[in-house]
Amino acid sequence: MIYLFTKINKIGLKKYDMNKRSIHERPLVTIMMNENIAKGLSDPHRLKILDLLYHRNLSTKDLFELLGKAKINIAMTTLRHHISILKKNGLISIHRKEEVKGTLVNYYKSNVKMLIYDNYPFVTFTRDNKDIVNSLYPKFYKVIKKIIMSDKDLVSIILSEIRSKCKICKTYHYAEFLLFMVLNMVIAKVLRKLLKTTLSTVLE
Fold this sequence. Notes:
- It is a single chain.
- By secondary structure, the chain is mainly alpha-helical.
- The protein folds into 2 domains: 2-27 and 129-203, no CATH class; 35-110, Winged helix-like DNA-binding domain superfamily/Winged helix DNA-binding domain (Arc Repressor Mutant, subunit A, Orthogonal Bundle).
- It is built from 10 helices and 2 strands; from the N terminus they run αααααββααααα.
- The protein has helices at 2-10, 35-40, 44-55, 60-69, 76-88, 122-128, 130-150, 152-160, 173-196, 198-203; strands at 92-100, 103-110.
- A two-stranded antiparallel ribbon has the order 1-2.
- Strand 1 (92-100) and strand 2 (103-110) form a beta hairpin.
- Helix 8 packs across helix 9 (173-196).
- The longest helix has 24 residues, at 173-196.
- The radius of gyration is 21 Å and the shape is globular.
């Protein structure tokens, strides 16, 4: 474990002094992205397809009908093209195959969850909620630091792909990317459970 701490120290986790850094920085939303994801999300129709497939496993025919009900009128050939791009870039996959009237039908599932809202006040939201972010920051910092410094499996993920440090901000962005991926999945799972149980009594 001492070896792991020494290695983590090289990516600046242990030496980080929270008191020397201002928490009153401009709130930023980190978007994890690569070329495949960017290509898959570059069309609004594909965003809608991902949203539909997150809630249900659907065939091409099912998607075509649901898109029509949502007043998104596209040709079946165009829909197949969108499905092909999403599948090629890993955003959807085949969940199961069923024979329907002698034809083998693919039912697709989404590999990501999309939270999409039209005209969302992105800039004003980050600005208006700066105080909340600043108040939560030290609490999250302590919890996440404790997890990173004590969880061997998480540490092994970080250390497995240590790459060069950013010349501008001196941060290991790939390690940051990996941590965001793991924490994103964990937090999404926690929120899903809370919204179905604890928070449902507050929101109703």
